[in-house]
Amino acid sequence: MNGTWCYFRATFALLLHPCMKTLTFISNSLSILLYPMLMPVYAMLLLVAAVSYKGAALSSAYIWLLLGGTLLLTCIIPFSVILLMIRQGQLRDAYIDNKDLRLVPYIYSIAATIAWCLFLWRVMKMPAVVTLMVSGATLALVIVTVINRWWKISAHLSCMGALCGAVAGYSWYTGSFNLWLLPTLLFVALLLMYARIFLKAHTPMQTVCGFLLGLLLTFAPAVAYELW
Dihedral of CA 206/183/137/199: which sign? Predict the structure, then answer.
């Protein structure tokens, strides 16, 4: 009986192996494409698309400055710190699976995100509601940094939640709702949640809490600004 069970278990594992490799590849790809430091760039791309769709004229210089400044401040600078720490042997990879090693990269990310807020407010002259939502996302990053001292809440899902919250908040503020964009982002968030759990990077609760934290802290400022 035990021999038969071992045979069936080995056969099942053999059949499942190619599928597991595919799921691992997809999960890793999603984790890279939806890396936290890329989310602000995606957010600005969506904002430019939304403004252009409404017929507002944005110069090419303004768009390139906005996207370039966002990429530099929220991605290139903080990621350079991570690469330097990897080169020095302080980190194993860019995912920083060990929560105890996240403090220094997170502090640099917070500083860079604050600089990005100032850049949007003072240089790009963004509307107050956009600056407030970005400030909410920055606050979410601060809270994630604090929580990570004791519990490995998901930064991937926090940033994904912030992106969803920003889209929902902008839709609330402008009174326009795209029937496809937000549902698509929520579906992508579910895929990312599954990917992070599948890779054993986080527990389900860590992904859900991260997502809700980012979502609420970016959506709430837009609602508060509109109501007050």
Answer: positive
Cβ atoms of 69 and 124 within 8 Å: the answer is yes
Could you write out the DSSP letters of every residue in 203-224?
-HHHHHHHHHHHHHHHHHHHHH
Average pLDDT, rounded, for the chain: 88
Read off φ and ψ for residue 198, nearest 5 degrees: -60, -40
Q: Is residue 24 part of a domain?
A: no
Name the pLDDT band for 5 (thresholds 50, 70, 90): very low
- The answer to whether residue 14 sits within a structural domain is no
Q: What is the pLDDT of residues 151-208, one digit of tens each?
A: 999 999 999 999 999 999 999 988 887 778 999 999 999 999 999 998 988 999 999 9
The boundaries of the domain holding residue 71 are: 31-227
